[in-house]
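Q: Sequence in, structure out?
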Amino acid sequence: MLDTAALAEVRQASLEIVARQMGEPRVAELFASCFDRSIPETLRSADDGSVFVVTGDIPAMWLRDSACQVRPLLPFASEVAGVEQLVSAVLRRQMRLICLDPYANAFNPVPNGAGHADDRPRSSPWVWERKYEVDSLAHPFHLGYLLYLATGRASWFDSAAQAAARLMVATLRAEQFHETRS
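A: Exactly. Output:
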């Protein structure tokens, strides 16, 4: 996760950007207040080095939403120590989750079985909600591409990401013929 100094650097830089672009210091302060709360309250470091993103009032991680939550950090990824590593850690978690179930859109932080018990077919206890959405598969890869554009590096694209990419393509192909292949 970002250390305190890196968080302060991102906060200050984003505050300056918002104030300059908006021309309204009060809006910048509101942004800073939201920023100060969002990272410590929504990002959870896992034992495996990945980062779980709580994406709302439900203690689950939606693939699309988690990608969107860390996307505002990308302008700082090449300049502020720790930002690239943080986004990469989120991407590593997303890739592992896609490998668990490409039809799921939301996942638990641990395999506790919480979530929608009525989803059919029932998936693993890691899955909070199993509702197939193309954007759930696409957003993590889009985030990875944007991180690459920001830094010129794709260190997050490991063997799990390669497996997730293959699984995503296979799932998208199957869903083009939903009635016969899904």
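The longest strand covers residues 43-45.
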